[in-house]
Amino acid sequence: MTLREIRAFAAALLIAVAAAWPTGGADAGDYPWLPAAPVRDIANAIPPPPGFARVAVVEDGFASWLRHLPLAPAGTTVLLHDGRPLLDQSIIAAVIDIDTGISDLQQCADAIMRLRTEFLYSRGLIGAIGFALINGESYPFTAYGRGVTPRQNGDEIQWESAKPRGASHGDLRRYLDLLFGFASTRSLARELQAVASLRDAGIGDVFIRAGQPGHAVIIADMAEDASTGRRLVLLVQGSMPARGIYILNNTPHADLGAWFEISDGQPLLTPGYMFRPEELRRF
């Protein structure tokens, strides 16, 4: 084989590999609960409506990470933590490919804490992982690693010490299950920072209503019509009882599919909830 033939063969091989290579936009380490990099994700499965284009985001940031969240195969049913299917599947646009656990723990605010934690873990930011409990005390992952565990004692939370633990992803999941039992929409809302107006909204911001029950959704992607300034968002949520995490369908405005319009001063209407503009918060 001549040098020219070798170069031609190499070029053809590179083209073939590029065509076959998954285009999920993420590396295997970005979503550490998965065994491999995702092939189907939000960005390549849910295009914005005609006239809209996805907004620019910082590469490797939280917004980009959310935009490329892995999706389960199209048509996947959302299941509750006990394996039963969610009764109303019409509100589901797509299902995030992430585990729920077998206990009734990973609900609405918990799903958002899970996503934020998984992002930080994927970036090696172990020391930044932590949330406040319902009593206002912080429970960082590093404390869990030292063997510190919260325990309910009547109306109070007490701390127990045991042998140190590791920092594997399995340790992270066990930490999160502990955290979920002691956190809520109220504790998460207190931690997040208010966003002045919806025109300042960004990917990764959270609409949250503190209460019993409260609710919360996170903005996982955003698109804009440059000619009109209209902005649309994709919303991801969990709920109670604990269930798979999913992208909402815009059932009130079916013409937009999974996209919801946000406009300054206007409430955000989602299936089952209406969030006020002042309920937008940021990490």
Descriptive notes:
The chain has 283 residues and is an alpha+beta fold. 24% of the residues lie in helices and 22% in strands. It contains 7 helices and 15 strands. Strands 1, 2, 7, 8, 9, 10, 11, 12 and 15 form a 9-stranded antiparallel beta sheet that branches. The chain is globular and about 60 Å long. Residues 1-24 have low confidence and may be disordered.
Question: How does the SSE layout of this entry go?
Answer:
Layout: H1 3-20, H2 42-45, E1 53-54, H3 62-67, E2 92-95, H4 108-122, E3 130-132, E4 138-140, H5 141-145, E5 148-153, E6 156-161, H6 169-180, H7 185-191, E7 193-194, E8 206-209, E9 215-224, E10 231-237, E11 246-248, E12 259-262, E13 268-270, E14 273-275, E15 280-282
Antiparallel strand pairs: 1-9, 2-11, 3-4, 5-6, 7-15, 8-9, 8-15, 9-10, 10-11, 10-12, 13-14
Helix pairs in contact: 4-6
